[in-house]
């Protein structure tokens, strides 16, 4: 690693000020630290958010769950509130990486990083969640802009994410066995505004699949999902899977998610 200055702010305001001055926020460090070790990232100042107590925690707000940005994956997975209100979200958190990653990784860090194969962005988009920052609230549909790109501005920090409680939801992923990231992950939800289907791991950024949503809004069955042709032309292809294989996974995982939701 290169030399850097290490800051430990005690409040969101202090952390935001340091970030606006060029500091690089660090949450669980599961993405930033490996990049630094490989010398792919060279921040001159690191702003550690772990000392800000107000950024962690889970609470219900009416028909939604508000989860603090610094809440660890393992805490989301173990939360009785999450397991009761949005079991698919608890399941997702319980299957991120390995035990060590779940103990250190955070909701806000994952969403802010927006790795193309990360699990949490699919839940945020699939549930139509709201990303709350120190400056504003951002709808999920407006938040994810591209590979590792989000609507966050310089010095803007995620403080919490508000997840509407769906009628029912399911998350399934086909894992890359070494990294445990998603070759493809599908988060499907029946919400007050209709069916939402969010896909991760298949392209450069998490996305909603309009064709699957339209078909499932007409008839919510695995057969409806199976009838939708998945276009592979803009999907990822790499040493792990071809674009066509990922297209097939999107279809199969969506069918299985619907079947799971129907019981």
From TrEMBL:
One term of GO molecular function = oxidoreductase activity
Keyword field: FAD, Flavoprotein, Oxidoreductase
- InterPro entries xref list: CO_DH_flav_C, CO_DH_flav_C_dom_sf, Diverse_Substr_Oxidored, FAD-bd_PCMH, FAD-bd_PCMH-like_sf, FAD-bd_PCMH_sub1, FAD-bd_PCMH_sub2, Mopterin_DH_FAD-bd
Q: Which Pfam families match?
A: FAD_binding_5 (PF00941)
Q: Where is the FAD-binding PCMH-type domain?
A: 1-168
Q: What is this protein called?
A: Carbon-monoxide dehydrogenase medium subunit
Q: Which organism is it from?
A: Extensimonas vulgaris
């Amino acid at each position: 690693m290169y030399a850097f200055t290490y800051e430990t702010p005690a409040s969101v305001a202090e952390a935001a000020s340091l970030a606006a001055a060029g500091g690089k926020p660090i949450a669980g460090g599961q993405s930033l630290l490996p990049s630094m070790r490989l010398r792919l990232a060279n921040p001159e100042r690191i702003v550690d958010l772990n000392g800000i107590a107000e950024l962690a925690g889970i609470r219900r707000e009416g028909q939604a769950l508000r989860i603090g940005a610094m809440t660890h994956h393992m805490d989301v997975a173990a939360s009785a509130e999450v397991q009761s209100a949005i079991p698919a979200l608890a399941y997702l958190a319980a299957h991120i990486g390995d035990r060590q990653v779940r103990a250190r990784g955070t909701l806000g860090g994952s969403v802010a990083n927006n790795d193309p194969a990360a699990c949490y962005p699919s839940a945020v988009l699939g549930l139509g969640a709201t990303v709350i920052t120190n400056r504003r609230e951002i709808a999920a549909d407006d938040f994810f802009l591209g590979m590792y790109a989000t609507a966050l501005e310089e010095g803007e920090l995620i403080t919490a994410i508000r997840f509407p409680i769906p009628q029912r939801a399911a998350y399934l992923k086909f894992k890359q066995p070494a990294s445990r990231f998603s070759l493809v992950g599908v988060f499907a939800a029946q919400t007050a505004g209709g069916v939402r289907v969010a896909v991760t791991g298949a392209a450069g950024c998490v996305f909603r699949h309009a064709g699957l949503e339209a078909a499932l809004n007409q008839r919510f069955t695995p057969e409806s999902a199976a009838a939708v042709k998945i276009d592979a032309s803009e999907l990822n292809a790499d040493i792990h899977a071809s674009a066509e294989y990922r297209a097939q996974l999107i279809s199969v995982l969506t069918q299985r998610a619907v079947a799971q939701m129907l019981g």
